[in-house]
Design brief:
It catalyses: (6R)-5,10-methylene-5,6,7,8-tetrahydrofolate + NADP(+) = (6R)-5,10-methenyltetrahydrofolate + NADPH; (6R)-5,10-methenyltetrahydrofolate + H2O = (6R)-10-formyltetrahydrofolate + H(+). This protein has two domains: 28-114, Leucine Dehydrogenase, chain A, domain 1 (Rossmann fold, 3-Layer(aba) Sandwich); 139-273, 3-Layer(aba) Sandwich (Rossmann fold), CATH 3.40.50. Helix content is 40%, strand content 16%. It starts with a strand and ends with a helix. It contains ten helices and eleven strands. It is of the alpha/beta class. Bound molecules: 5,10-Methenyltetrahydrofolate.
Length: 291
């Protein structure tokens, strides 16, 4: 079994980006500037945005975090987005999800200037992705592709089973794995809450990408020998004995599944850190696009 070490690879990527930023500075160019809007006080969301800001500092990007209250109206958020769209200092920005229920997420994501949409969530960018046009690929799927690429995991002709059809992971991932090129050229099955007999499907998979959010959902009996396992789940499970009061748990029963897998991502230290690295990569692309 080979561990797909997202922590290590994301560090390599951050070092590469740091070098790019140094070159930009040497040429007297403005460094990339990422902004993140966060609405409300969700603990996990605040942690993720804080790590994105920290990652910006680490590579030499500028960053701005914009906090808005839990009672923010849709109009107020749309106004803020318009401000960032028109601010020439900002190369790219994200709106941390999920949003409070008074706000229509789809409407908000459509308001982002597609050229600054470093999350790749605007329908224009999602469409471009599906049509193999160059665009921002959502950070989590992009991070998974990058991991498969850097470990040279064969995807051509393989059967990839994606668990979950979310707009930010499962759906784009299912499109990307079936695209031409590498990593891609897989035969893709997408499964969801209405899928019948999921074990019958997962046990035929050469590659499983689980983005469900149910701790320890994927058991050894559901996986064939030498499968490649990508765990996108990150659920905080209460644990009094750990310092933070919770532990981060993936969708995969790692202890048992890792014994059968050829490659597997750990949680934490797998897909999560890659997501952050690829957001930086998209921000660098956004900067180059505007240059
Ligand atoms: N507009 C938007 N864009 C996103 O990219 C986005 C989002 N909204 N909403 C929530 C999800 C989740 N997400 C994660 C990023 C990093 C880790 C990460 O670094 N995880 C660490 C553990 C972090 C911890 O200790 O909590 C790890 O897996 O090793 C996890 C999850 C980005 N998301």
């Amino acid at each position: 079994m080979i561990l797909l070490d997202g922590k290590k690879v994301s560090n390599d990527i951050k070092n590469e980006i740091t070098e790019e930023v140094k070159k930009m500075k040497a040429k007297g160019e403005k460094v990339p500037h990422l902004a993140a809007i966060i609405v409300g006080n969700d603990g996990a969301s605040l942690t993720y945005v804080a790590s994105k800001v920290k990652a910006c500092e680490r590579v030499g990007f500028e960053s701005t975090m914009i906090r808005m209250s839990n009672t923010t109206s849709e109009i107020e958020l749309l106004d803020k987005i318009e401000e960032l769209n028109n601010n020439p200092e900002i190369d790219g920005f994200i709106i941390q999800l999920p949003l409070p229920k008074q706000i229509d997420t789809q409407k908000v994501l459509m308001a982002v200037d597609p050229d600054k949409d470093v999350d790749g969530f605007h329908p224009m960018n999602f469409g471009k992705m599906a049509l193999d046009m160059s665009t921002f690929i959502p950070a989590t799927p992009f991070g998974i592709l990058e991991l498969l690429d850097r470990y040279n995991v064969e995807t051509k002709g393989k059967h990839t089973v994606v668990i979950g059809r979310s707009h930010i992971v499962g759906r784009p991932m299912s499109i990307l794995m079936g695209r031409k090129g590498f990593p891609g050229n897989s035969t893709v099955t997408i499964t969801h809450s209405h899928t019948k007999n999921i074990t019958q499907i997962t046990s035929q998979a050469d590659i499983i990408i689980s983005a469900l959010g149910v701790p320890n959902f994927l058991k050894a009996e559901m996986v064939k020998d030498d499968a490649v396992i990508i765990d996108v789940g990150i659920t905080r499970v209460v644990d009094e004995t750990s310092p933070k009061g919770y532990i981060i748990t993936g969708d995969v029963d790692f202890e048992n599944v890792s014994k059968k897998a050829s490659f597997i991502t750990p949680v934490p230290g797998g897909v999560g850190p890659m997501t952050i690295a690829m957001l930086l990569k998209n921000t660098l692309l956004a900067r180059e696009l505007r240059h």
